[in-house]
Amino acid sequence: MEFRPPRERERGAVGDLVAAHCGAARASELGTLDCVIAVERHTPVGALHYRIDGDVAEIVYIATVPKRRGTGRRLLAAGCRLLASQGARRVRATADGGDERARQFWSACGFAESRDPAGFTVHERAIGPV
Question: Which pTM does this prediction carry?
Answer without folding.
Answer: 0.85
